[in-house]
Amino acid sequence: MRNVIVVGGGAAGMAAAYAAGKNKHRVTLLEKNEKLGKKLYITGKGRCNITNAGDMEDLFAHVVTNSKFLYSAFYGFTNQDMMELLEKYGLRLKVERGSRVFPESDKSSDVIKTLSAALKDAGVTVRLQTEVKDLIIRDGRCAGVLLLNGEKLDADAVILAAGGLSYPATGSTGDGYRMAKVAGHEVTDLHPGLVPFISSESWIGELQGLSLKNVTVTIWDGKKKLYQEMGEMLFTHFGVSGPAILSASSLVGKRLKKGPLMLGIDLKPALNHQQLDERILRDFEASKNRQFKNALDKLYPARLIPVMIRRSGIPEDKKVNEITREERGRLGALTKNFTVELTGLRGFNEAIITQGGVRVKEINPSTMESRLLPGLYMAGEMLDLDAYTGGYNLQIAWSTGWTAGSSI
């Protein structure tokens, strides 16, 4: 039996503490907040998208950064293993569109309660409102932690799972990166990931709150296609957000620092240009004596119509039966490629994850132990690992946490 200290009571920290406890170690989980899993409470809009039920190839395909590093962790503790663990402690699960896994109750608090019960069963001591100031390094190895209140806790192994920089109000303030640097580790450049885009378009505020479903979004750098996804998106007072948009931020965020990119939205991806033209013709035929502005309610959401009219260049009071073929073609082209200039990303306050982190070459992928400081392990968002939305980032946390806790 060894003394194990886990720093951080988020997803990775709880998985690590449970695995180490089940390995019959004496485990103390230190969390600086007043409760465990504070960030888990707000994931999935408060519903907690626990993992993704896709097959392993699908999981790896959705990892953006350093997917090969996760081979041992993902196979050592799979998405199915995580689902079975939660079900073992009484949480009922459901799988939704895109293989996203949620608690049946739609309450993230039920996930925390279940994990708390698991930690208790594994004999883990949880200390809340306990902030770690520094690692204790003795004789070339990690030998414990120094708390903010001056208390020293000795340990045979320390697992750092202190999170990244996203949603700092939940306690992700970069403490883990600072401690990792003291231990000699390199931290790569840190960026907000899975974060909304900013646009400078003058009309963007008019569409605030408008959600579009089943659209295809494409991001272009000139003629080079950087990203494409079908799904749901949302207009905000500053730009665009929503599931199909957030994933793009992790891929194009660094490029965006060099200058604007163009977002193209296909509002009718199920129709090709000719089919769309036929559809517009049918709608116009049914409204041939009406004004153009009154003939679009079957084609577009009401909020979008004024912007579509202005951008089509067709006078709003023009009679539908007077609209030319060329004008109709312009409307069709705009429908298939509604463009929005993207000029930047929102900050860490709105980022779901942090891109960047402790360089994974300095971590043993089979155990999550530091290659630089024996006795120190790391897991979760602290590492330079990230994925698209859909439960994949939480699976990275569960798998790396489990690997660290079960390797000691």
Task: Give a topology summary.
Blueprint (H helix, E strand, L loop, with lengths): L2 E5 L3 H12 L3 E5 L7 H5 L8 E2 L3 H6 L1 E3 L5 H6 L2 H10 L4 E4 L3 E4 L4 H14 L3 E3 L4 E7 L2 E7 L4 E3 L2 E4 L14 H8 L8 E3 L3 E3 L11 E11 L2 E12 L3 E3 L1 H14 L4 E6 L6 H14 L18 H8 L12 H12 L1 E8 L7 E3 L20 E3 L7 E2 L4 H16 L1
Parallel strand pairs: 1-2, 1-11, 2-7, 11-20
Antiparallel strand pairs: 3-6, 4-21, 5-6, 8-9, 9-10, 12-19, 13-16, 13-18, 14-15, 14-17, 15-16, 17-18
Helix pairs in contact: 1-6, 1-12, 9-11, 10-11
Structural account:
This protein has 408 residues and is of the alpha+beta class. 31% of the residues lie in helices and 25% in strands. The chain has helices at 11-22, 38-42, 56-61, 71-76, 79-88, 108-121, 175-182, 243-256, 273-286, 305-312, 325-336, 392-407; strands at residues 3-7, 26-30, 51-52, 63-65, 93-96, 100-103, 125-127, 132-138, 141-147, 152-154, 157-160, 191-193, 197-199, 211-221, 224-235, 239-241, 261-266, 338-345, 353-355, 376-378, 386-387. The strands form six sheets. A six-stranded antiparallel beta barrel has the order 13-16-15-14-17-18. A five-stranded parallel sheet has the order 7-2-1-11-20, covered by helices on one side. Strand 5 (93-96) and strand 6 (100-103) form a beta hairpin. Helix 1 (11-22) packs parallel to helix 6, helix 1 (11-22) packs parallel to helix 12 (392-407) and helix 10 (305-312) crosses helix 11 (325-336). It is elongated, with a radius of gyration of 25 Å. The model has no long low-confidence stretch (mean pLDDT 96).
